[in-house]
Amino acid sequence: MKTGTLKQILLITDGCSNQGEDPIAMAALAKEQGISVNVIGVMENDVIDDQGLKEIEGIAMSGGGVSQVVYAKQLSQTVQMVTRKAMTQTLQGVVNRELTQILGNKQTTIEDLPPDQRGEVMEVVDELGETVEVEVLILIDTSASMKHKLPTVKEALFDLSLSLNARSGQNRFSLFVFPGKKNDVEKMLDWTPKLESLTSIFSKLSTGGITPTGPAIREALTYFNKKRSLRNLLSRDDDEFYEESI
Amino acid sequence: MMMNSMKSQFNVTKGTCIDGKWHKNRYLIEKELGYGANGVVYLARLKGTLVALKMSDNGLSVTSEVNVLKSFSKVQGSTLGPSLLDVDDWKTSQGKTYSFYVMEYIHGPDLLKFIESNGSSWTIVLILQLLNDLDQLHRAGWVFGDLKPENLIVTGPPPKIRCIDVGGTTMKGRAIKEFTEFYDRGYWGLGSRKADPAYDLFATAMIFINCAYPSRFNKDSGGLDQLRGRVKQSKLLQPYEQVIVGALKGRYQSALEMKRALLDEMSALQTKKNTKTVTRNAKAANQSAPIRSRSRQHKKSKGGFKETVMLILVISCLYFFYIYGQLV
To answer: Which top-rank group of organisms is this from (chain A) (predicted)?
Structure first.
């Protein structure tokens, strides 16, 4: 089986969007392009209201990703777990598709196999999870209420880098914040295998009143595309996209 | 997909029958034993025998854990994890299908509770047992990953450490699947999350530290200095400082090496203690002397009693002969 690149957006926010396109629709758009969207809602003393919660779940669901709402102090553990879980989920989708192909036209998933064979298939998923190339675009809400949570977010991102870099597959991270100074979204860190190169990034943030989550996701997608065209120039033909997940 | 804890997600109560779809075994639920991110564990009965049954709505995490349990059974002589009894699916009356697996029911208090009720002298014994089991696991090419006291159960008698959650077990060289921050090398900034034996040994050292600080503590300055400070402050840990810090630094390549180091440290400690006891005995010698003489006196009086009896016997014998002579 060819191992392509897993593409994920990791959205870290603490509430509802209030400007621009519907983020749930934008997440669906991402999914169509083979990019899954994971969302982590960060609470501290405040609690995320129902509307915010619905949006967080909605984005992850239509983006084919995983969502979780946590207190700031659990962030490190959660960020790496959500990312790993979403990876496995996507890989399972790929394996399920392959299974359907192998076993004929009938829709077959891993769960339809007898338990013994399931184990062998799971080995393949595990193996892929270890070796697959991963690209994570991190999208951070820097609206006013997030300000004092940002040091924790940074720590969690280092932790994510530590987890993913323990794999034998390649990783690339990039980091964007929204709202940006001029645009909806601002690039903080270009594609790099090392998130540790992120040092004083959060100090230059300006915090405003708006939260344009939808536009941020839409714009983030273009950075994946830009990169793809660049890489096509380098004639990498193993760049297969996973467009399907569970 | 929303991740949340699985508590009371399945409508399974005492008396529910779980019928296996593939292997046709029937399990009768007794009670819930615990739950975590990956599913709920129930105590169940199969034809009268108690077993532990883990159920999850994520069939693949079940499969993943079953794979690990199977590989455990291939590790000869290792008794660290529970043995796997069955893997199956259960179709509820609402038509939903959940995957589950059945394992041996390991019964007992967890590591910290056991030490709390049986005394801290058990700590080192159980740590040594754990190292022994880890060594066998490592030799088979696996790393345990999510080692922590909550996952360690002490069964018995005789007390034996066992592990009940194998979800984090990872093939050597891969990225650790699951971990808990306090016991994780990466969290303390003391190494990577790549699965190698030293990763488990770090966790073992942290468990040892946890035994002295049952409520754990938070990372402040982080790193080795904070941990070393904690080890020095504890009476339980201080004698083993070198080994604990060594494991935290990743000095030991195998569990056996760490076990030997601990044993060496123990015997060194014992010789120190012994020399102390010898001098103490010498000082106490004078005090104990009167006790010994008293006991000798006691023996004398006992001997005197026997002498008296003999004398009376002999005299009464002679008297008997005398009377006999008079009569004849």
So the answer is: Bacteria
Give A166-187 pLDDT, tens digit per residue. 888 889 999 888 887 777 788 8
A88/B22 CB distance under 8 A: no
From the CA of B145, how many Å to the nearest CA of chain A? 13
Task: Write out pLDDT tens, residues B82-111.
Answer: 888 888 888 888 888 888 899 989 889 999
The residue of A130, A160, A195 whose CB has the most chain B CBs within 10 angstroms, and thus the best one to mutate to test that interface, is A130
Amino acid at A21: E
- pLDDT digit string (tens) for B12-21? 888 888 888 8
Residues of B in contact with A66 (CB under 8 A): 1, 3
Instruction: Give me the CATH number covering residue A165.
Output: 3.40.50.410
Q: Which of A16-20, B162-166, B252-256 has the highest mean pLDDT?
A: B252-256
A198-227 mean pLDDT: 73
Interface A:B, Cβ pairs < 8 A? 83
In a domain, A241, yes or no: no
Residue A193: inside a domain: yes
B259 near B132, Cβ under 8 Å? yes
ipTM of the complex: 0.72
Q: How far apart are CA B248 and CA B245, in angstroms?
A: 5
Domain that holds residue A84: 5-233
Contacts of B39 (CB under 8 A, 6+ apart): B6, B54, B55, B56, B57, B58, B61, B62
Q: Which residues of B touch A164 (CB under 8 A)?
A: 175
Is there a contact between A67 and A40 (Cβ–Cβ < 8 Å)?
yes
Domains of chain B by range and CATH? 17-104 (3.30.200.20), 111-272 (1.10.510.10)
